[in-house]
User: What shape does this take?
Amino acid sequence: MLFACVVLSSCYDAQEIDSDSYVIAIGADTAESGYVFTFQFSNPLSIYSDGGGDRSSSGTVTLCAENFNTAKSLLGSFIGKNVNLSQTKVIIFSYDTAKAGVSNLVRDFLADREIRENAYVLIASDTAENFLGEVDPILSISAAKYYENLFRDEALKFAPLTALKTVGETLENPWLDCVVPLAGTAEEGGVSNAPANVDFAAGEQPRRGGEKTEVIGMGVMKDGSLVGELSGYYVALFKILDGKAKNLPLSIGGAAFQITQNPRVSKRVSVKDGIPQISVDVSLTVNSRAAPQAQNALCAELESLLYRSAREYNADIFGFGNICRRRCLTDHNWESTDWSEIYKKAEFYVKVTINPQ
Assistant: This one.
């Protein structure tokens, strides 16, 4: 018993706080051959700094490699520490990389045992390397904390939250598609005229001050490739149809109001003569008695977004295919439906009810 107490109470497996290099963000850009990977590291010692030195909370390393596994292995040749990916908060693809397709990259990230499936995915309007180079938090003690605060429903009103696992699921199921938030770098500009709505994407917001980087708008992904981009205004509409619009402000049809509860959304799907017939009923609870006058305008805007997803992108970002799939009695019946082909012909019928609180 005495021997066990002595052995088990020792510090033989202890590690110093600076023995590992913790990657908090990974960026992927296309290159002539392979990819350019940017790794953003957190400096855990920076939070203990007394402010007397120039100790940054993060730093980046960029290198070119054929694939992610090779890039990760190459890091060890000059970092001088163990590379730890367990604290990775975000994975960023450049615009060009997302357009070309990220299927192989996503599968590599998901296959890595250290990277968490709930790491968030972004698409940068420029390169991922440039975006990560601009992340310099002024309101957080570290870049890691900045990402933690950013990826919350309370913070990202006009961008979706999309995890790595969600993107991976769409690669394995041809009837599933997803949206990914857009990230960019703010440009200093005039702020004298307030925009009528949030009809801009990352990097376009009229503002001065604050963090250099911003996340607004969303990209539409199909089969692992970026097929379209939508502004923050359409993200608000998307969240309404997705039933996740609590505390979301909206200005439409001459009325400005705030949605105080998550919408109640009912979806019905049937297929007639090879054309999906999709009905969507939306019930909103809002904080303004003037809001009901916007019902017709909101109904038209929601229908417009639905038709755009089908006709322009042929991307089922609302999960209608899953509803149709559950109605099929056998796998053969579902496969013969050929949802990814017929969705672009879908007809939509939207009903909106706005209830003042």
The longest helix spans residues 295-312. The chain is about 30% helix and 30% strand. Residues 17-230 form one domain.
